[in-house]
UniProtKB/TrEMBL annotation:
Group of enzyme by EC: hydrolase
Predominant location category: cytoplasm
Residue numbers spanned by region Disordered: 204-241
Role summary: Digests double-stranded RNA. Involved in the processing of primary rRNA transcript to yield the immediate precursors to the large and small rRNAs (23S and 16S). Processes some mRNAs, and tRNAs when they are encoded in the rRNA operon. Processes pre-crRNA and tracrRNA of type II CRISPR loci if present in the organism.
Chain ranges of the DRBM domain: 165-234
Designated name of the protein: Ribonuclease 3
Cofactor(s), names only, from the UniProt record: Mg(2+)
Keyword terms: Cytoplasm, Endonuclease, Hydrolase, Magnesium, Metal-binding, mRNA processing, Nuclease, RNA-binding, rRNA processing, rRNA-binding, tRNA processing
SMART domains: DSRM, RIBOc
Quaternary structure note: Homodimer.
A GO MF term: ribonuclease III activity
Segments of skewed composition (Basic and acidic residues): 205-221
Amino acids binding Mg(2+): E51, N124, E127
Length: 241
């Protein structure tokens, strides 16, 4: 049984989370770190099993949203974005947004060494809470609860060129919509050998669709492909960055 004080604490967290548990014991278990269990004589279970479950739940939430939203992204790009979102640093940040750390049950050692603000503990607890929400309800509810929290992170990584292979995206778009393969050509080189600047144009079916420059042919081709995507598919927001 939970004390009234603990129940009141969990009510606060549920308001931050945007979900009300039918079974508060599930949420309490999700917040129970193994260091706390190790110091108790009574049989208490820690949150590691919920953490295992929640990791998969968050993967599904992110994957489902991206497959629906970013229809031109390759499987490899989707995997990179998901890995960037469902990782320790990102999840710890999301945990801080709902003040998760102050509701954790920690052992004395972790308490004294700042465990409530450790990335690893916060990220694991966030996953555990996701697992508890799923266990208390269903996948659809977990999706509705956690997607709004994850969507901003997904969008941020989806829009950064660090994760984008514009040449692959352009090739997929051209094959699907234009029945052709893009062709790239270097049209200009400037600067000394150690500081070359390349200018590349990309054509589909003989028509110039984009132009880009860079310090290498590969970089210039990526820039040209990005420019072509913006030209060919301006209504798709996923090609802007």
């Amino acid at each position: 049984m939970l004390s009234k004080e603990r129940i009141d604490e969990l009510v606060e967290l549920q308001a931050n989370l945007g979900y009300t548990f039918r079974d508060n014991l599930l949420l309490n278990k999700a917040l129970t770190h193994k260091s706390y269990v190790n110091e108790k004589s009574e049989a208490i279970k820690n949150n590691e099993r919920f953490e295992f479950l929640g990791d998969s739940i968050l993967d599904v939430v992110v994957s489902h949203y991206m497959v629906k939203t970013f229809q031109d992204f390759s499987e490899g790009l989707l995997s990179k974005i998901r890995a960037a979102v469902v990782n320790e640093s990102c999840l710890a940040g999301l945990a801080r947004e709902i003040h998760l750390g102050q509701y954790l049950l920690l052992g004395r050692g972790e308490e004294l060494t700042g465990g409530r603000d450790k990335n690893s503990i916060l990220a694991n607890a966030f996953e555990a809470v996701a697992g508890a929400v799923y266990f208390d309800s269903n996948l659809e509810t977990a999706y509705d609860v956690f997607l709004p929290k994850l969507k901003g992170e997904i969008g941020q990584y989806a829009e950064t060129s660090l994760f984008r292979d514009f040449k692959s995206e352009l090739q997929q778009f051209a094959q699907t919509n234009l029945s052709c393969i893009p062709h790239y050509r270097v049209v200009n080189e400037t600067g000394p050998d150690h500081e070359k600047q390349f200018e590349v144009v990309v054509r589909t079916n003989g028509d110039e669709q984009g132009k880009g420059s860079g310090r290498s042919k590969k970089e210039a081709e990526q820039a040209a492909a990005r420019n072509a995507l913006e030209h060919l598919n301006p209504k798709n927001p996923n090609h802007g960055a």
